[in-house]
Records
---
Amino acid sequence: MNPSLQGYSAAVLEDAAAHDETARLADDLAAIDQVIGRTPALRAALTDTAVSATARRAVLLELFESKVSDGARRAVAFAGATVRAPEVPAAATWLAHRAHLAAEGVATDEPLLGHLDARTRVGGFAAAIFEDLATDRLEEVENELFRFARIVESTPTLRTVLTDRDVPGEVRRGVVDELLADKVQPATRRLVDFVIDAGRTRDTVGTLDWLVEQTASARGWRVARVTAAAEVDGDERGRLSDSLSRLAGTSVELQVTMEPALLAGVVVRIGDLQVDATARDRLERLREHMTSGAWNDSGFAGAGSGTEPRGAH
């Protein structure tokens, strides 16, 4: 099944369980599956490749409004917008079956996926979480995820525990419990837990950083990761943010970390784009220029060796 839908349905099921509504969710999804299966016109519309994903989602949201629980309606609409058109009926059946197993108390572990698919599954889970969050809360989640990723990245022992596939999942979850209990928003905690449970273990830090970008995107922003040699003050942040926003073609939010080894300037990363404007980079390029033969070509080949420079009289 589509990895994004796997993640989204996991969040919906988690919400239902928290409110003791898993049985109702299962019944509603089963009813939706039956409606799609028994209504040729609806089935034809949902499987028509000429109908856009946005239109399919709108049709499903409108059709089942006030008829089923919000979770069931959102889940099937997400499926309609996410999977390929011919697969929408099968996706509805899959959702109903997964909810039925949950209602029966049957545990279903998330299957092991490759690097990109695992991130996509986490993204589907995040999409469901983000739908219920206001913009200011999204910003808090983004900052909390960023800070936690930096803690994991900069703490070798913690990083080893959370990225070691041989460490049992319950142990890694226990470590996260101790670190984050009552210190972050519930949404942040749910996202980190899902990264531990359903992400690629060795990609834990990478997935957390990817989630930071997804959270920023949900607010209509792009994340610019700025590594600076010195503190970036308010005015500098404003000018840098404006410049990067023009470069990216959208509003940009800065996430700044310090690295004195850069000597001066900043390194900026926005998605696949990297801009290095540091003194260290300029020195490296100068060194490469000199070692490539430019020093000899400059007319000072013999300097310091007792040989007169070319052109000397």
Note: Residues 294-313 have pLDDT under 50 and may be disordered.
---
Amino acid sequence: MRTAIAINPRHAAHDEPRHVEQAARLQAITAALNASGLRASLLEVPARPATEEQLRAVHTRQMIELVRWSATRPRSWIDHDTYTTSASWDAALMAAGTTIAVVEAVVGGSARNGFALVRPPGHHATPAESMGFCLFNNIAIAARHAIDHLGIGRVAIVDFDVHHGNGTQDIFYEDDRVFFCSTHASPLYPGTGAEREIGSGKGRGTTLNLPLPHGVGDAGFARLFDDVVIPAIRRYRPDLILVSAGYDGHWADPLGPLTLSVAGYAALTRRLMAAAEEVCRGRIVLVLEGGYNLRALAASVMACLEVLANETTVVDPLGPADEPEPDVSALIARMRQNHPLLAGQNVP
């Protein structure tokens, strides 16, 4: 089986060229993909819009109507950094639906794994609010669809964007059918994602936050995944792994204070693929989130696609950060001692 991809064909007119979350992001990825020669070996899944019923599975009717209304104007702002254009309603529906389409291809067995190349991004969108460049929460909509309609019992969502995926966390905070794990710089927007945020009610222990000091890069992430993230996935044993794949943790990114490299992102993807092979028959789908240095973004996405497609050689055209990293040993020790999934406590 091949690696599935789908590209949001309606994204380009959702564009504010003065904003970092602009159409040039996905255009840079598409150009790199076309130039690589890899595209011919991938399974291209037809893009499609989400239905309003699929949106309402995670978002309030009022929120959905606000996005629809905002997109009736040539240009508008939902908050101080989240814009819409007259094309944004179509773009947002297509981003969510295309993510669902890739998940269906993987769960249905027509693809080994996949990558949904979509924008606008989604992980900051809460049940009731669009924010942080995000209109609808693409990965949450797809996760809920997989549980409600595809026979998936448990989903693990791993978010390695530099910003905490507050929206995804809020949507599933009390839901034991979704394990949400976020690695993110702290302090940084949106200010959520503390270690103590572990879920509540039935979902207690199914949220795991790793707030990172500025400067953590390839070595620190490797330790965090080996000692915390992958063991938690093994303990939870999901039927599907979804990844909020944000590349603004790259050392060259203008918004992020972390120091990951292209090779570092490829290494994280290898670890997650191996975990998926171990616990859920290899079923893993990456979903594009942030990343605002166009060269680093395109190279990082291509590296992760090459890993998904089992390419043995991954090229890092930008190289490592070559900066000392802060020690993450204390964070790892606290997680292993205190988090229910790692400390042997009862988890739903």
Note: The first helix runs from residue 24 to 36.
---
Amino acid sequence: MANIILLAVCLLTGIGLKKTGRFPVATPAALNAFIIHISLPALAILHIHNMKLDTSLVLTASMAWLLFGCAWALFIIAGKVFKLDRETVGALILVAGLGNTSFVGLPMIEAYFGKEYLGIGIIADQLGSFMVLATLGILVATLYSSGNVSPRQMARKVLMFPPFQALILALLLKPVHFPEWSVTILEKLGNTLTSLALVSVGFQLQFTGIKAELKSLSLGLLYKLLLGPAIIYLLYASLPGAIGTVAQITIFEAAMAPMITAGIIAIDHDLKPQLVGMLVGIGIPLSFVTLHFWHMFLTSI
């Protein structure tokens, strides 16, 4: 419950700081830079280094990749059908294609399924959502913000993305024992991510233009909260004996609200910041309702 309350407090804080004018207009840019260069790399090194890889959780790890791939294909089609501009399509792929599988996802798993299943959520987040963001996510952000870029430029963008570099470093350091003081430092730096990200999103959140973004907003939330997890369910249901507790929790993770960090990357690449703020700011509280019904459905099958 404390995590959920913190989400609301940080989002409202960002909105309040913007309205009072106490922070400069460039505040989101500074917060986003800290998140990308400090918070995310610290989390990557800490969690990937400690993660035990288990082949039995391949389906869980693959969920975010499937969800993102489907989002990419569907929003390209939706962009043509609804005549959406390039930046809007990029924002929808990136933000609606990835779920908040950690800060929202883990407390929700504990509340609905039990603390003993948190490991499934960590696999879905670290081997799924985070790795997609650090690779395909940054590719989408670059492609849709910069227009035509060469494969070499896109490869360089991925390789120079600080969280991706941290991910590689974490894998290389897996045989190395981390001293306690280094773990503490990484934890404290990583813990800044959610609060800073939500303050940044709240600072840029505007509801005055919601009518203009309503079509794109509806498409994004419809996919992220309903259609996307339904696709994952149908894919899993087609596998013999696949719908057990692990699969239920994986589908539940697929139904999480849009990923806060993906929103930060989208905003950093100037992909419709106002739309991104609405996807995150409206998507998180709305997901508390949709997740309840997803749990009811999953536990009844």
Note: The mean pLDDT is 87.
---
Amino acid sequence: MPEPESYDGSCLCGAVRYRITGPPGTMSNCHCTDCRKSHAAAFSTYIDVDRSVLRFVSGEDRLTTYRALSGTMRSFCPTCGTIVLCFTETDPDWVDISVATLDTATAKRPEYHIFVRSKAPWHDILDGKPQHQAAYGRGY
């Protein structure tokens, strides 16, 4: 499947909508405690996006941002709770988009796992992808 030229995404209730107008970066699965707790799941799947190609179609003013003790920030819809993006102040040019919020299909797949040192003990990673104990990629 060829990759589209742009990607649309939204939160569960549709109040927050965005468009990515350039190629997204790497997709990865994060197993850090913050991601597990905030997504209420074994891990979260994010795709790196250059901020310059991300624009909100609607609802950006509705986003609520939570800063974890680690310094990582997650912006979510206060109505439905969907985490739309994750970012840090130390890397202002990039955000991580929650892949599950994409409305446009992508052939991309996660390339690796990060923060496996804090993965859920009841979850086995069996996909054969590289596993990194901490962060990896984009200069981490």
Note: The CA atoms of residues 28 and 111 lie 6 Å apart.
